């Protein structure tokens, strides 16, 4: 029975997970520099250890109610098309192991074409964790725009 480790993060009261193998690092929140003419869910860019890193606000991307940045706010950094991208989340404080038997496919209702980033639903005793592939959160066109931001700075 295969197990995978997931970084668990929160957006509001909901829990999400991302495969730990896709996470480069989890950083404390840093204010970003706004970049003109970018999609609304791009908060801006930061200098993360010498790399210009675009910052995506997952709440804006998922059309969720925004909350204030606080001491629990984190940036989950992954690689998208060989570029570093950060995703703002309300909290990222746990790594969980999930066995394949505790992961179900996303229900048809949420597994449409626009939801290709949902890899499954993790079941833990009294919790449900929506498992995401953050690389797929952005469309190919959006990935190109982000790449363009990085190349022109």
UniProtKB/TrEMBL annotation:
<keyword id="KW-0963">Cytoplasm</keyword>
<dbReference type="GO" id="GO:0005829">
    <property type="term" value="C:cytosol"/>
</dbReference>
<dbReference type="InterPro" id="IPR036061">
    <property type="entry name" value="CheW-like_dom_sf"/>
</dbReference>
<dbReference type="InterPro" id="IPR039315">
    <property type="entry name" value="CheW"/>
</dbReference>
<dbReference type="GO" id="GO:0006935">
    <property type="term" value="P:chemotaxis"/>
</dbReference>
<keyword id="KW-0145">Chemotaxis</keyword>
<dbReference type="Pfam" id="PF01584">
    <property type="entry name" value="CheW"/>
</dbReference>
<dbReference type="InterPro" id="IPR002545">
    <property type="entry name" value="CheW-lke_dom"/>
</dbReference>
<dbReference type="GO" id="GO:0007165">
    <property type="term" value="P:signal transduction"/>
</dbReference>
<feature type="domain" description="CheW-like">
    <location>
        <begin position="3"/>
        <end position="143"/>
    </location>
</feature>
<protein>
    <recommendedName>
        <fullName>Chemotaxis protein CheW</fullName>
    </recommendedName>
</protein>
């Amino acid at each position: 029975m295969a197990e995978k480790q997931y970084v668990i993060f929160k957006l509001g009261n909901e829990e999400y997970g991302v495969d730990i193998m896709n996470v480069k690092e989890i950083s404390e929140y840093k204010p970003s520099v706004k970049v003109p003419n970018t999609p609304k869910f791009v908060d801006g860019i930061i200098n993360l250890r010498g790399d210009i890193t675009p910052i995506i606000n997952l709440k804006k991307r998922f059309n969720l109610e925004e909350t204030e940045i606080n001491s629990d706010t984190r940036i989950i950094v992954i690689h998208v098309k060989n570029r570093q991208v950060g995703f703002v989340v309300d909290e990222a404080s746990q790594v969980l192991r999930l066995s394949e038997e505790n992961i179900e496919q996303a229900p048809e209702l949420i597994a449409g074409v626009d939801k290709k980033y949902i890899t499954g639903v993790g079941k833990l005793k009294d919790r449900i964790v929506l498992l995401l592939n953050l690389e797929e959160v952005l469309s190919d066109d959006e990935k190109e725009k982000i790449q363009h931001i990085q190349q022109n700075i």
